[in-house]
Specification:
Strands 3-2-4-5-6 form a 5-stranded parallel β-sheet, with helices on both faces. Strands 7-8-9-11-10 form a 5-stranded mixed β-sheet. α1 crosses α2, α6 packs parallel to α9 and α12 packs across α15. The chain contains 19 helices and 12 strands. 48% of the residues lie in helices and 12% in strands. It is an alpha/beta fold.
Length: 500
């Protein structure tokens, strides 16, 4: 075993530069002794800043170690207080969630928590094809007509200026629970709980929306407890409900965290590790049924979340009825769960076939653009199913190593789509700025992914705009693209100890 690269190797067979991560040899030795682990494992840890002093905390995946005070998130206490007021006064609460896994699991977390209190919230998942991403006046109006006096948006809403202003004029308070990038103008919501706010000091900007939703549930639970809302433990409750078991919700948080591909560090690692344990107990009827149709066997892992459960839940929002996945994640009826899980499984098979057809067409267009020197791929098709363009954008990004956007052209003269970026290139920020300069009709996202709606006759303008905004950062990132090597091991050293 050696810390260096052998035989002066500097690149892979495909020409990708190899860069050895720097590790402190002294710390490697200390970690090897302290953790009783193979040297290569200690070297991997050291290269990521882990030292003898913080190794235990880094490797500890308990919530007790990593769970912060929810109040560290800007506006969380304000949002929790308003929700507590709504609960105690009997106001109708509406939940508006995004149609992807993160939005669905975050919305399910809030819905299941409220139901444990005896509160039945209204829920709304927009149709990806007809409504697109994020809140709209029409969606908020539908919730208002059903009596909603407070609306919580999950995994969206940070840039929904028009919809929130409409709600304010109707006397409806909006609480944003999100992790997407804000625009230059702060959305005028009652509370904006988003760790990516510039004035948020929580250092939790790596959380998924499902993670933020769970922290809101924790904060709300504490507020209600302080107000004496719950029955005392071990005593007859009378009209008071028992305090909800928040740990039962963490399987949803784990699923949203993995499927939104946020960094598995700190609190996220704790959410996922503990969430997998909860998933194994099959307490959520929907996830249990989906695990069965997905043929999840053995110990649940991040693979099962990301490649078996996640795609089937996403298939509901891509090809099926809006809200189908949320219905699965919130049902307590085992037979209903089985029925929906089978439907999602069938939709996932359909999604694969549709995706391949769009991908074949998109690849031809992307290859032509790359040959002409494009640094941002922007492709569009009239018969492309809107439900798969995000996946196709991801495939193009992986294939060409460039930010990619795939758009589905609609009959109304607009194109709706999604983009995926490369590390170090802030696509979400560029899309938000595109909305602010009125190039895009709608849009939002974060550094690595974004959604948008643009007029068809401005697609070329969008491409030029993105090249201008992102070109320099793309060139810089691509100039330093390298395969980072942690260390080298001989074949004889690759054994069960290293695998464990």
């Amino acid at each position: 075993m050696t810390a260096g690269l052998p035989f002066d190797v500097v690149s892979s067979a495909l020409g990708q530069q190899w860069h050895l991560r720097e590790a402190d040899d002294g710390e490697v030795l200390k970690l090897t002794q302290r953790l009783r682990c193979p040297e290569i494992v200690a070297r991997i840890l050291s290269a990521r800043g882990v030292t003898d002093a913080n190794a235990d905390a880094y490797l500890d995946t308990s919530l007790r170690t990593h769970m912060p005070d929810p109040s560290c998130l800007m506006d969380l206490d304000k949002g929790a207080d308003r929700l507590a007021q709504a609960i105690t006064s009997g106001e109708v609460i509406g939940l508006f969630g995004d149609y992807d896994v993160d939005g669905g699991t975050g919305t399910a977390t809030m819905a299941r928590y409220l139901r444990q209190l005896g509160v039945e919230p209204l829920t709304y998942i927009p149709d990806r094809r007809t409504e697109g991403y994020g809140p709209s006046v029409g969606a908020f109006s539908a919730l208002a007509q059903q009596g909603a006096k407070i609306i919580v948006t999950i995994d969206c809403g940070t840039t929904a200026l028009e919809a929130v202003e409409w709600a304010n004029n109707q006397g409806i308070d909006v609480i944003i629970v999100d992790h997407h990038l804000p625009g230059d103008r702060m959305v005028p919501a009652y509370a904006v709980i988003n760790p990516k706010r510039e004035d948020d000091t929580s250092e939790l900007d790596y959380l998924s929306a499902a993670g933020v939703a769970l922290l809101l549930a924790v904060g709300l639970n504490r507020t209600l407890r302080t107000q004496g809302f719950f029955a005392a433990k071990g005593q007859p409750g009378g009209n008071k409900p028992k305090e909800p078991e928040l740990m039962k919700l963490i399987d949803l948080t784990a699923l949203g965290t993995v499927c939104d591909v946020v960094p598995l560090k700190g609190l996220n690692r704790a959410f996922v590790t503990q969430g997998l344990k909860v998933l194994k107990r099959h307490g959520n009827q929907g996830l249990a049924a989906l695990s069965e149709v997905s043929k999840v066997s053995g110990e649940p892992s991040t693979y099962h979340l990301g490649f078996l459960l996640g795609p089937r839940i996403n298939a509901g929002g891509r090809l099926g009825p809006a809200g189908l996945a949320l219905q699965l994640l919130t049902t307590e009826d085992a037979s209903e769960a089985t029925h929906i899980a089978r439907e999602l499984d069938a939709l996932n098979l359909q999604r694969r076939a549709v995706e391949q057809g769009v991908l074949d067409d998109a690849l031809l267009k992307a290859e032509d653009q790359v040959q002409r020197g494009a640094r941002v791929i922007v492709v569009a098709g009239e018969e492309w199913h809107e439900g798969v363009v995000g996946i196709v954008a991801g495939r193009l990004k992986e294939r060409f190593g460039l930010p990619a956007i795939a758009l589905s052209i609609q009959e109304d003269g607009t194109a709706k789509g999604s983009g995926r970026s490369i590390k170090g290139v802030d696509l979400g920020g560029a899309i938000v700025s595109g909305v602010e300069v009125r190039l895009l009709l709608r849009g939002g996202g974060h550094g690595m992914a974004a959604g948008m709606t643009v007029a068809v006759d401005r697609i070329d303008e969008l491409s030029s705009y993105l090249h201008g905004v992102l070109g320099e950062s793309i060139d810089e990132v691509r100039a330093h693209v390298a395969l980072k090597i942690d260390g080298m091991v001989g074949l004889g050293a690759v054994n069960e100890d290293i695998a464990d």
